[in-house]
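Form 12-C: Joint structure prediction
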Amino acid sequence: MATITLLLQRNTAGDAAARNELFATAYDALKRLARARLRDAGSDELDATSLVHESYLRFVNGGQLRAEDRRAFFSYASHVMRSVIVDTARERLAERRGGGAAHLTLTTQIAEDLVQGEDGILRIHEALQVLEQADPRLARVVEMRYFGGYTELEIAEALDVADRTVRRDCEKGLLLLRAALA
Amino acid sequence: MALTASQLAVVSRLLDEALPLDDAARGRWLASLPKEHETLRPALQELLRHATSVDAADASADPLWQLERQLRTEAKIHHVGELVGPYRLVSERTRSALASTWIAESTDIGHRTVELKLPHADVIDAGLGQRIVRERARLAALGHPSLSRLYDTGWTEGGQPFIAVEHVDGTALDQWCREKRLDVRDRVRLFLDTVRAVANIHAHGVVHRDIQPATVVVTDAGKIKLLDVGLVKILSSNPTGVAGADPKHAAPEQIRGEPASFSTDIYALGVVLYELLGGRAPYVLMTREGRELEDAILHQDPPGPSRITKDPRAAAAMRGPLDAIVLKALAKEPAQRYETAAAFAADLDRYLSSQGAEAQRGDGDGFAGLGSMVRNPAMWVGVAIAVVVVAVGFLVW
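Section 2 - Result
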């Protein structure tokens, strides 16, 4: 299996196969972490930030990722994190229909700002898909902020823009998401 | 009013016009919306109601603005129920030289409980905003389960800066050890987790600067949590960090006014371990004057903790390697201490795993970080004499 570093570089160079492999590699790692976290903590809160940071550290310590590729990894990991969260929410919903299974809460701002629970997560995901068509750049910032759990400053660093720009984008992105949700 | 993607794209463009305006101008802008966008007016109106003025927050970077805010928050005293940014104050927890710490509740739907640090007015200098931004990025990258997490930083409309961190429900390390009546081994084991957590932040280039029993807590699950990592560096522009730190845990170099370093944290860990094992601080003071404490930190060589504990069984467990480990961390010169927290942890680990076998062999071999101290009997004689001299000194006094 190619290292994350190599995959990130090939992905940046436009290699679509690398993107798929990258996604699969990061997805598995995050999914495992998310499951372990939900089980260990005995809680039903998924903290996107700590999961992404932890997976980053594991990749770095495992020699799979160079610290220099942190930026690319973080913007990418937000996208993966969103999939993990959405899939987990779907699973939880399906399980609950069969009885049992506790509610899943996302401990990032978006859940607190907009709607809660699995239904909320899925609705936000769908609204974000609409936003992706309308304004892809804003959608990316919102994804990093609310699904990746990054601070505005970290997003600014990853996208190489002023943090003031990110703050504006987040505010506006959240407004538009609200419009798409309502 | 769920909008479609194409409507949303138009709204996005229109919002760029409306968001920079103030409330009155937004009203006029809405009224004069071109005819083709009229159907979007209710949606826009609703969205603008939710939009806060983004530009107000940006002013925090301006030094003049900061100065004005500082003057306005002078002598500000906070009260229960007060709204600070998006948080409502629930109860004051502690107050240090630099900031007061409140338990607060987020007013968003989640009602998350956080610990809110509110820097005192005299701490709010022109550099605070910059330090918050710079350190926030470094601290956010830490994300280790043994560290309390930094959630959020910001400024209120009234100019009060706030730092929201994870609320950890726990017991101070020393109190926990007392309450649970932990023996020497269990104390060392818990302390080892603390040293490892410190080694982790050091690996990320972060110095804690304020390690003391109050910033090391044990959760109900018995897990160590390191609080306030890097907070002193945010709150104080003083590179020694001693102004904010508890002077009892200050290292000699901090007293001398030299900048805090990784070695400063190792010294502070040494003080904590000393207190856990010996039951009191390393230095015995006759007065409560700060000068005497500073003098003791600079010049007094504390006896090994085994010499001061009142529990003979504990003393037997500490004598030898453990005494030497503690005193090495407490060396006056940074170069004489453990080079890294990881080396400190390694020796403690070795102590725990070799303790039984060691007692039978009767030597302390294998403690890499200790150098010749443990292996050199002549040195132990010297230490013993010094201890006797100190003891006699106390009796005479």
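Section 3 - Comments
The longest strand of chain A covers residues 45-46. Residues 107-114 of chain A have pLDDT under 50 and may be disordered.
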